[in-house]
Amino acid sequence: MSVEHTQAAPRPALPTTPLDPAGTDPFEWLEDVDGDTALSWVRERNAHSAEALGGPAFTETERAVREVLDSDDKIPHVSKVGEHYYNFWQDAEHERGLWRRTTLDSYRTDDPEWEIVLDLDALAEQERESWVWHGASVLRPAPEQLAAGEPRRHALVDLSPGGSDSDVTREFDLVTKQFVPESDGGFVRAQAKGGMSWVDPDTVYVFTDFGEGTMTPSGYPRQVKRWRRGTPPAEATLVYEGTDEDMYISASRSHTPGFERDLVHRALRFYANETYLATSVGTPDQTLTKIDVPDSANVGLHREWMLVRLRDDWALGDLTYRAGSLLATGFDDFMAGSRELTVLFEPTPTTSLVGTTWTRNHLVLNVLDDVKNLLHVLTPPSSPSVAEAATTGWVRSELSVGGELLTVGVGAVDVVDSDDVWVVTTGYLTPSKLGLTTVAQERQSAPEVLKSAPSYFESAGLAVRQRFTESDDGTRVPYFVVGRADLVAGEAGPAPTLLWGYGGFEQSILPGYSGTVGRAWLERGGVYAVANIRGGGEYGPAWHQGALKEHRHRAYEDFAAVARDLVARGVTVPAQLGMEGRSNGGLLAGNMLTRYPELFGAIIVGVPLLDMKRYSHLLAGASWMAEYGDPDTDDWEFLQKLSPYHLFDAARDYPPVLFTTSTKDDRVHPGHARKMAALMLAADKDVTYYENIEGGHGGAANNAQAAYMAATHWTFLWNRLSS
Fold it and tell me: In terms of Cα–Cα distance, which of 671, 679, 623 is closest to 652?
């Protein structure tokens, strides 16, 4: 909808409520992201929130959060590239950030010597663009190049203006530490949603907006091409083109010596994809052979092995492999027709597979048991042949790290040449630690702690507890609660309490240290709780699928059950219970607001989906129909019961609500938050609204913006819940 007016937005008349989805949307003009009238409304609301929340408490919270974000003592996580260890760093002096590198010996010291590779602040000033780092990929030289001592120099750097999902890719030389100009044959991809990946030093796969008809309805690439250095982008060779119904098309090459393979990836929709082995790419003899596994499965290749991770049951011959299982087979044998698979993991009622990590010779499984991590190291047989696997099998051992109620993350240091892994541990009251160890069985030991984050808040007297409650249908739902020990136990309450949740896209929400939560909430006497509701991945695919589409209400019932349990245990009372959710969690928050307003004293709705009649027509919304349903079909029958924009009733009482979003969010349309806030304001409800101009879906493009946003959240909550 195009709006040309420049005057301030008029206050619309109160529409008939609940809103009629078949009628005219009185606030559709707020979907015009950069329209003058819409932005005038945004500026007016931002000014109101600044006036309402500003003051000494806001300023002190902002300062405390900024100190955490800018701290020089936070862990500089690194990625190994050749002999160097690369890190991206932001602090008070470098708001946009530094891409830098060091050696392992130097990294082990308390004060590593960093070599600056790219200064984003300097680049942003030079090019007058608010660049936000989106990452980089570095080409691994061929074995003969490594043997000749040639350095790793070919990098593709992704940069986003203002933090949007759409970004640019530019080739960068790691030796000269300069971008390679297009005039010198450098690879450059114009701003769009998409990317590039290396084939060889002079060739890339590029998947992006090539013009009309080359993007999917979700706004992602529909085509992938093979682009040769020195040729115009328009002459790049088409490798694969998807259909109008697809979500995302891309391609990549594995550069593991001896196992170089080209793969084309076709995302049909969320939770459904196809992977093709591509040969003779870019020639008349090109062939694409589909890897014949269920569309809902995830496929991973490592050297001679293929892993298949199942989301649904897979009936294969006389066997049925259970959803949530991890299977292994020899890739070449599988492509030749063999269907002999080894079960490496099968879920139980309390366990799920949260991740896998290959090293050169081993596979690490990261398993959750009632939302607590367990690590298993698997060593494959020396050959993927069926006979060999049947004779020796996969050897299993345990990797003991972490502790009670700590989250453990594992990542390979160098998947091609090493069996070393990074190990990160963190907890709600335990600052993060970064360790280094090996998973080679003959040399396994406790991780060598290389870096430890400081304590940003006083944790003496605080406690963490995991609890379980029962949802409406009898399902057992876990949650964590953090705060002063007597408050957590319900012995000294009620206390201001924030309940946080997400519940979607099979994402597991695990314990983690946050200096921001500690300083802005726990130190002030607040209690913090996190609900592991259905829709997430804490108990595998079944936990996620239990809240898909017409079952979405179960996630909201789970969350409401946790809210009631906090009250029943004496931790808080409804007037002092707040909740927050972002993105899909923003839809959760919107449903708490409109379906369970009596349970909460304040609600924060961040970068949310709220208009579930229009969501699939806004930005990337069409890609989420596998999660929520298609509102243009009979699915609207259940979606209208989950659409906060249509559930709002001006005659009902609602708790105070804060809506936050970003003008640069090109994933979840800011119109959702704008329209819901306007609808509630027209009914004279207690609404605070803040929209950051930059930041994308993350909400902030730098630490200053992140600190301001955090201060807005925490000040709103404390003002509403502490009285």
Answer: 679
What is the pTM assigned to this prediction?
0.92
Residue among 302, 669, 672, 697 flagged as catalytic: 697
Q: Burial letters for 593-625: b for 16+ Cβ neighbours within 10 Å, e otherwise? A: bbbbbebbbbbbbbbbbbbbbbbbebbbbbbbb
Q: Please name which of 719, 514, 518 lies closest in space to residue 56, comparing C-alpha atoms.
A: 719
Task: Note the pLDDT tens digit of each residue in 569-609.
Answer: 999 999 999 999 999 999 999 999 999 999 999 999 999 99
What is the Cα gyration radius of the chain? 26
3-state secondary structure of 22: coil
Q: State the Cα–Cα distance between residues 110 and 480, nearest whole angstrom.
A: 34
**First-to-final CA distance of the chain:** 43
Is 697 noted as a catalytic residue in this protein? yes
| Cross-strand partners of 287 | 279
583 is catalytic: yes
CA distance 535 to 555: 6
CB 449 within 8 A of CB 432: no
Classify residue 202 as exposed, middle or buried by CB count within 10 Å of its CB (0-12, 13-18, 19+): middle
Note the pLDDT tens digit of each residue in 307-328. Answer: 999 999 999 989 999 999 999 9
Contact 561, 554 (CB under 8 A): no
Sign of CA dihedral 107, 111, 115, 121: positive
Q: Which one, of 205, 276, 196, 277, lies nearest residue 236 by Cα?
A: 205
Delineate the domains of the chain, giving CATH numbers in brackets. Answer: 40-66+456-721 (3.40.50.1820), 78-128 (no CATH), 140-290 (2.130.10.120), 297-453 (2.130.10.120)
Catalytic one among 166, 296, 583, 623? Answer: 583
